[in-house]
KEOPS complex Pcc1-like subunit
Amino acid sequence: MKKLISRIETPLDCIFKDALSPDDIELPEDMEIHYVCTNDRLHILIYYTVENPEDILTLKNTIDDIVRALQLIEKSIPR
């Protein structure tokens, strides 16, 4: 059993945290997602305890979901 930490550093302002957190419901039992504001930028930390090979796929799918949500947020910001 290993505890993995995945970190996503975004160019987004920290105010967008609330746009992502509704997706944090029904997470796997040993998974935690934390939103950290560093230098006015949103960073996402995903902690997950991996016990079997299928857990890696679960982590990957969660990261994919977060990245898709981040892409939608970025596209919605006027430039």
